[in-house]
Amino acid sequence: SRFKDKSIQSPPLKERIFVSYLSDDRKELEEILIPVLRKIEARSGYTFWYDRRSLKGGDDWDFKIKEAIQQANCFIPFLTKKCKELSFTEDARYLRIEWRTALSKKNELEKKHERFGVPRFILPVTMGKENAINAHFSEKQSIDVFDENFETKILSEVENIINENIMYEKL
User: Fold this and answer.
1) Does the pLDDT value for residue 56 go beyond 70?
2) Burial of 72 by CB count in 10 Å (0-12 exposed, 13-18 middle, 19+ buried)?
3) What is the CA radius of gyration of the chain?
4) Would you give the DSSP letter of residue 74?
5) What sign has the CA pseudo-torsion 160, 164, 169, 170?
6) How far apart are the first and last CA of the chain?
7) What DSSP assignment string belongs to 15-41?
């Protein structure tokens, strides 16, 4: 038959991790965080959403970004000195939209699962502990790229957060 049997096709991988960053920090992100996220993909199959690889020509990027955040199980804001300095300027306008969308989803999760405890969703990754304090994520424990065991910590925490969220989705 010229039509493939859909029952035997494997489902597409869901992009469970959303990476939010200031475009000025792309070089650092691609050198430090993206390689670790690729390891998570290889190890667990949990893919990550990153604008440079996930947006295609002609995409409605506003819709696609918000949709990806809503579908994600883990939101990683990459917080740097530049990000901290520029977070309230026009240069970071869309970064703030991503953050508000993630915080809105976090609030929805809290309301939906308050009887069972709240799954984690936001995992700030900082480039220097001094950048951990950000008005949007100040109550969240961050992981710093300069921590001795950064790679081990982020691999473990991202997988734990995703697994928690998958469990909560079934409740």
Assistant:
1) yes
2) buried
3) 17
4) E
5) positive
6) 40
7) EEEEEE--GGGHHHIIIIIHHHHHHHH
Q: Does 2 score more than 90 pLDDT? A: no
Return the pLDDT at 101.
93
Which of 82, 159, 60 minimizes the C-alpha distance to 128? Answer: 82
- Distance (Å, rounded) from C-alpha 58 to C-alpha 147? 39
- Picking from 143, 144, 150, 151, the residue whose alpha carbon sits closest to that of residue 127 is 144
At residue 84, the pLDDT reads 76
Q: Does the pTM of the predicted model rise above 0.70?
A: yes
Q: Which residues on neighbouring strands pair with residue 168, listed in sequence order?
A: none
> How crowded is residue 68: how many other Cβ atoms within 10 Å of its Cβ?
22
Place of tokens 């579908």: 71
